[in-house]
Every structure is written in C-alpha cells, then in structure tokens.
Amino acid sequence: MKKIAVIGTGYVGLVTGTCFAETGNQVICVDIDVNKVNRMRAGEIPIYEPHLDVIFERNIKANRLSFTTNLEEGIKDAEIIFLALPTPPGEDGSADLRYILGVAEDLGKILEDYKVIVDKSTVPVGTAEKVREMIAKNSKVDFDVVSNPEFLREGYAVDDFFN
Ligand SMILES: NC(=O)c1ccc[n+]([C@@H]2O[C@H](COP(=O)([O-])OP(=O)(O)OC[C@H]3O[C@@H](n4cnc5c(N)ncnc54)[C@H](O)[C@@H]3O)[C@@H](O)[C@H]2O)c1
Questions:
Q1: Is 145 helix (H, G, I), strand (E, B) or coil?
Q2: Fewer CB within a 10 Å sphere, N or C end of the chain?
Q3: What is the number of structural domains in the chain?
Q4: Is the CB of 152 under 6 A from ligand 1?
Q5: Ligand 1 pocket check: which of 14, 29, 31 to mutate, most ligand atoms within 8 Å of Cβ?
Q6: Best of 6, 7, 11 to mutate for ligand 1, by most ligand atoms within 8 A of CB?
Q7: Best of 150, 154, 156, 159 to mutate for ligand 1, by most ligand atoms within 8 A of CB?
Q8: What is the pLDDT of residue 93?
Q9: What is the dihedral of CA 50, 27, 82, 72, to 10 degrees?
Q10: What averages of pLDDT result for each successive group of 10 residues across the chain (163 residues)?
Q11: For residue 124, with 0-12 CB atoms within 10 Å meaning exposed, 13-18 middle and 19 or more buried, which class applies?
C-alpha cells in the first residue's frame, strides 16, 4: 500500500487516482475546482467512463479515495505525488507548462519530507528537469521527479489502466 496524491482531478487524474485506490493504495485527489471537489465528496462522479463509477463509489466507501482543494493537506502524507494537470497547446502549438510549473513552485514551498513527484501530463522532453528546478528553488528537502506519460484512451481508460 502506498500513500498517493494526485494533483489535478480531471480525466487523467480521476482515472489514475480511482484505479490506484482500487489496487489497495490510499489516494487523495486535489483540484482547484471547488464545485467539482464538493460534488466528488458527495459521491458524484464528474466524467463518464465505462466501469469507473463502480470503482469510484467502492473506494470512497472503503476510505481509500478522498478529495480536497487544499494542496498542502493533499500531499502531507503522500509518498508519491502524481501531476495530472492540463497542458493546453499555446499559440505556437507547444504545451503550456504554466499549470505544472505553478504547482511545482507551490510544492517546493510546502514539502516537508522526501517525495517522488510523477509527471503524468503530456509534456515535451526536458520538462522533468524544469519541474525539478522549480521545486528545488524553494525546497529544503530531498525529492525525485519521474516522467510517466499518460496514454489512456477515452472510453477504455479503466481497461487501459489495469491492462
Ligand atoms: N484526457 C485524455 O484522454 C488524455 C490522454 C492522455 C494524456 N492526457 C494529458 O493529461 C493531462 C491532463 O489532461 P486531462 O484531460 O485530465 O485534463 P482535464 O482538463 O480534464 O483536468 C485537469 C484538472 O486539473 C485541475 N487543475 C488546474 N489547475 C490546477 C491546480 N493548480 N491545482 C490542482 N488542480 C488543478 C482542473 O480543475 C481540472 O480538473 C494533459 O497534459 C493531457 O494532455 C489526457
């Protein structure tokens, strides 16, 4: 069992968090969208994906899956932090890294012990180094950054996760 935080509870973050809970881990999903977090806390799933609703409900009931808008609270006990933040294409088509680097900067200020930070968003090669530098700017503790790009297909996300 690992303690996992997922930052960004959209399509990728919610599938990742829910499926990691289903495999026995303790998962907290963080999002800045207060309305979305309140709905999920009330047991309402914000997206449709085959099989996800059943797993979502089961793991909330088992206290393995919870939600917060508070980044500090979300990562406090986590050993592994997944970043599932948006990377919309900018005007020149390149991925906009502002959400990821913004959260990386915030993480640097609040890390209190060793964490593994995993980038699951779609980003160009070299982003892990940028994330590492952004965290290191403020961090007093040791950490590692890992790339684990997401390749799930909408409509098959749960199957893809488990297989
Ligand atoms: N959706 C897909 O099928 C898919 C497949 C493969 C890869 N990806 C990639 O995965 C990444 C995430 O995509 P998605 O579809 O899940 O995006 P999404 O827009 O569905 O979800 C992103 C979530 O992040 C939240 N967020 C934004 N800023 C935040 C912050 N500072 N702190 C906490 N939460 C914050 C938003 O409120 C939203 O809920 C992107 O890089 C995308 O390209 C998506």
A1: strand
A2: C
A3: 1
A4: yes
A5: 31
A6: 11
A7: 150
A8: 86
A9: 140
A10: 98 98 98 98 96 98 98 98 95 92 98 98 95 97 96 93 93
A11: exposed
**Closest CA to ligand 1's atom 38:** 10
Q: What is the CATH number of the domain that holds 121?
A: 3.40.50.720
What's the pLDDT at 30? 98
pTM: 0.97
Counting every residue written for the chain, the total comes to: 163
60 lines ligand 1 (CB under 6 A): no
Nearest atom (ligand 1) to Cα of 7:
33
